[in-house]
Amino acid sequence: MTTTATAEAAVRESSPGAAARGPRRRTGRIRRIGLPYLLLLPALILELLVHLVPMAIGIVMSFKELTQFYIRDWGTAPWSGLDNYKVSVDFDAPVGEALLHSFLVTVGFTLLSVGLCWLIGTAAAIFMQDTFRGRGLLRALFLVPYALPVYTAVITWVFMFQHDNGLVNHVLHDQLHLTDEPSFWLIGDNSFYALLTVSVWKGWPFAFLIVMAGLQNIPGELYEAAALDGAGVWQRIRRITLPSLRPVNQVLVLVLFLWTFNDFNTPYVLFGKTAPEAADLISVHIYQASFVTWNFGTGSAMSVLLLLFLLAVTGGYLLLTSRGRKAADV
Amino acid sequence: MHRIRAAAAVAVTVSLMTAATACGGGSSTNGGGSNDSPKTLTYWASNQGASIEADKKVLRPELDKFEKQTGIKVKLEVVPWSDLLNRILTATTSGQGPDVLNIGNTWSASLQATRALLPWDAKNFGKIGGRDRFVDSALGSTGAQGKDPAAVPLYSMAYALYYNKKMFADAGIAKPPATWDELIADGKKLSKSGKWGLGAEGSNPSENIHHSFVFAKQHGADFFTADGKADFTNDGVVAAVQQYVGLMAKDKIIAPGNAEYAQNQSVSDFAKGKNAMLLWQSASANLTSQGMSADAYGIAPVPVQSGTPGTGTNVNSMVAGINLAVFKNTDNLDGATKFVKFMTSDGEQKILNTAYSSIPPVKAAQADTTFNTAANSVLKDTLAGSAAALPQVADESQFETTVGTAVKELFADAAAGRPVTTASVKAALEKAQQQMPKK
């Protein structure tokens, strides 16, 4: 498109009859200025339809008393003012207390999961920097969890975590004798660790992929110079690799954080509609408030609160990292 | 230029607002049904058999028969039980649902409250042969009292005690237990060498509710007050839940591993001889499909605290079953009604309930000799004399999940070896009650 437009312009420039150029040039300018907007329009419409309109509807719903009596025609549900928000943040009452518990579980889970994903992904990517026999095969193997459909992968974990016939207990209890009794992984307190395991298993290949791409951009000369100066492996990682990966890591950590914090599929497939208390992630908690107890208004209010929290975290993070970058540039 | 942009912005906004109104307002759901599409019907069947494929094999020939009779083609979708309620909710919100659908009979009052289902008033019942054709206990689970039913009974089921004859004989037990004390005593004799007395589905909220409800009735208690308010923490209910979970926590006749069961694993365990007893509704077809022959197990009424099953505190089952409902905004109202008439006809009732080892809720079909086997007579007697319908209140669906989940957490405590006390049961039920919608 751009090539054609440039060619047309070139033909126009070289053609005779310069006096007649005025209006045509204006049309051309309009076309040039309007074209980007025109090209953006489909994306804009989709963005509105897919994100902004549902978001606006969700915000409206959060101010309504939306239960089974009104879901058929939710517009007729009575307004409830800030009631849904008050219920959600009243931490002394069970609904608010459960939401706060779920929020704290999610924060702890996200920090651990993102940290482990990043650590394993980065270590694996650095390890894979050197060429060795079988590197391609190993790289493909590393990416398997990322390529598998979520449901298939997680349901396999469900089988493995089963108390009576699961592989995890078979290895930990029957073979390695690490536990006195077979443990429960899908109910009770251990469910947190089961969820964390699956989340890290599923998430680290993405970190690996992104860090590996980032590593490609670090000039080899830097390492050569460092080697000449007598820097060891650890020093090279600390002084060259990690600082060079900083911009990549900033995006990676933010994306991992948002995905993990909002992850719905993993806990839902692992535990079903009602997760154990220890692994009650906020996305499933809100789903439960909305679709299990049919309190769609309260569920929407909780979603809006979650959105505000994530916006604040993302905004703060971007501000901090951009400040850091500016300071580094200076 | 500005004018063009402004016009474009207005056009986009208007089109989006139209789309949003169409999505949210659910204008299509406001219709009272029509006959615009008389030649086809869409039917969502709940997964009743061992698999979705097995259900299709049962239903397809019958639907073809219906097409031959009426010229109406039925598009069939068998929906897994775990997805069904959400699918119905989504269809209710969007207005894009099937014409006819199966609903769990305990959801009748909750779904009735959405006003998305066709009410079965005298006129509509007249089109399918009248209300009197159906058994009273089944009609008790079709909607709130005093309102026209939201659905028509299709399959009836009741809980019974399934017991492994050989395991009983090996343990020297002559007859199935009739009271809970007897069941616990027998269970203790049977729980040894990796085998257990009783099976349970500790992580399945619906199963938990069905049993808790029966135990509550046996303690003379209810989960709702007479005017429909949640009352989950009264002494009778707390004692009932404690007694049920206590079968694992205190009496230790249920394997701790059952605390995480939610996919009918306890039925498989029973078929494999890992559990000697099972409290289940209409399990015969499922057990046969898992290779257990019909003479390997016996069927007895679910135990009571003392005496024999009956009404009041001797209730020993909920009225279980599946109802058939019509979406109010169907484009084939006459066809949908004809389909309900066909599915609840005497002949079809015999065929379908035989295939699913359930009991016909239609009186004439129930009287058929096919349903006079020993197994069926226990279920029939239970339904006729000692089963009670779950609370027919608009919040029933929420009650099932909140209390069912509370019991799930209590089972998790029991499995982990933590004591299940009156206080811990009360706290769990208190939390469940607080999650119920405020009135």
Automatic annotation (TrEMBL), chain A:
Domain ABC transmembrane type-1: start-end pairs: 103-317
GO biological process: transmembrane transport
InterPro entries found in the cross-reference section: ABC_transporter_permease (IPR051393), MetI-like (IPR000515), MetI-like_sf (IPR035906)
Keyword Transmembrane appears in the UniProt entry: yes
Compartments, as annotated in UniProt: Cell membrane
Entry-linked SUPFAM superfamilies: MetI-like (SSF161098)
GO cellular component: plasma membrane
Region (Disordered): 1-23
KW Transmembrane (keyword) present: yes
Keywords on record: Cell membrane, Membrane, Transmembrane, Transmembrane helix, Transport
Membrane topology: Multi-pass membrane protein
Highest taxon of the lineage: Bacteria
Chain segments annotated as transmembrane: 34-63, 103-128, 140-160, 192-215, 244-261, 300-320
Family statement: Belongs to the binding-protein-dependent transport system permease family.
Protein name: Carbohydrate ABC transporter permease
Automatic annotation (TrEMBL), chain B:
Transmembrane segments: none
Alphabetical list of Pfam families matching this protein: SBP_bac_1
Alphabetical keyword list: Signal
UniProt cross-references to Gene3D superfamilies, sorted A to Z: Periplasmic binding protein-like II
Range of residues in the leader sequence: 1-22
Lineage top rank: taxon: Bacteria
Entry-linked PROSITE patterns: PROKAR_LIPOPROTEIN (PS51257)
Coiled-coil features, chain-numbered ranges: none
Name under which the protein is recorded: Sugar ABC transporter substrate-binding protein
Lineage: Bacteria, Bacillati, Actinomycetota, Actinomycetes, Kitasatosporales
